[in-house]
Amino acid sequence: MRKNSENNKTGILLAAFGTSVPGADRVYSHIQSKAEVLFPQVDIYWAYTSRVIREKLAGQGRIFNSPVQALALMAEHGFSKVAMQSLLIIPGLEHHDLIMARSSLEGLPKGIEKIELAPPLLSGTLDLERFTRSMLENIPASRESDEAVIFMGHGSIHPANVFYAGLQYHFWIHDENIFVGAVEGIPGLEDILPLLKKKKIRKVHLMPLMVVAGDHAVKDMAGRQADSWVSVLKERGIDTRVIMKGLGSFDNIVDIWMDHLKEVMDIL
Ligand code: CO
Fold first, then answer.
1. Closest CA to 65 of 41, 80, 81, 49
2. What's the pLDDT tens digit per position in 218-255?
């Protein structure tokens, strides 16, 4: 990797949604260690895009920067070039905030000359197919014909919500018993249930389609309340196993983000 000289200092900013679930941030440390191996000479900064999460953590005395704050800090620390990696899943609302942060902070007087923003995990057809093939290695290998895997994504009111349906298509090319749903988007669990019935599915492996197994995974996916995905599936007599692992804990998935990061480091 290029060495930082006095007036050409390059830094990396990892921008994640953020999490307040104790222990879930270990996933972020895992991602950082991968970036450190790839770019040992480069300083790595963090930003959390979620104000709600930042405020919650601040209440516990843990201060995290927003993307704008982190970029301003990096300018203050003398970085002239910054590669910002979007550690998000789809190019939705949070990713567009990163685009805005980039265009607001780039090229200010005595600030950062150049900021490149790397796309989130799923940013096009190639990502969808690579993600699909990678996850096929991460889910339980030996499954009976009446067993399914359901991924619970977040979902968005942003048009990029279509990435969930796009991902579903790519999974179905390989395996018709893999389903993609969103807790706040389409397709939802209610769209998947009739398909499970039609296919006479008796057992489901349920896992989050989120970077960390955070709040949504703990409550909406695996919670005890009647409307959690686990409860709804069990209600229908489907044996349900929860896999409490965020996408950021799988090496072959983090590699997709890291390849995006490499691409922007190359053009910086
Ligand atoms: Co949410």
1. 49
2. 999 999 999 999 999 999 999 999 999 999 999 999 99
Cβ proximity of 36 and 88 under 8 Å: no
Q: First-to-last CA distance in the chain? A: 12
Q: Tell me the residue length of the chain.
A: 268
* Predicted TM-score of the model (pTM): 0.94
Give the separation between CA 181 and CA 185, rounded to whole angstroms.
Answer: 8
Who contacts 130 (Cβ-Cβ below 8 Å, separation ≥6)?
A: 256
CA 14 to CA 85: how far, in whole Å?
Answer: 5
Give the residue numbers marked as catalytic. 154
d(CA 220, CA 222) in angstroms, rounded, equals: 6
The CA 66 to ligand 1 mean position distance, Å, reads 17
% of the chain exceeding 70 in pLDDT? 97
Quote the ligand 1 centre to 105 CA distance (angstroms).
Answer: 27
C-beta separation of 199 from 176 below 8 A:
yes
Q: Which two tokens stand for residue 180?
A: 């993609």
Residue 50 alpha carbon to ligand 1 centre in Å? 10
Question: Which residues contact residue 77 at a Cβ distance below 8 angstroms, ignoring those fewer than 6 apart?
Answer: 11, 43
Contact yes or no for 45/78 (Cβ under 8 A)? no
* Virtual torsion, Cα 158, 104, 259, 156, nearest 10 deg: -10
Longest CA pairwise span in the chain (Å): 64
How many angstroms separate the alpha carbon of residue 79 from the centre of ligand 1? 33
> How many Å apart are CA 93 and CA 82, to the nearest integer?
21
The encoded tokens of residue 56 equal 């919650």
Q: How remote is the CA of residue 268 from the centroid of ligand 1, in Å?
A: 33
Coil/strand/helix, residue 194:
helix
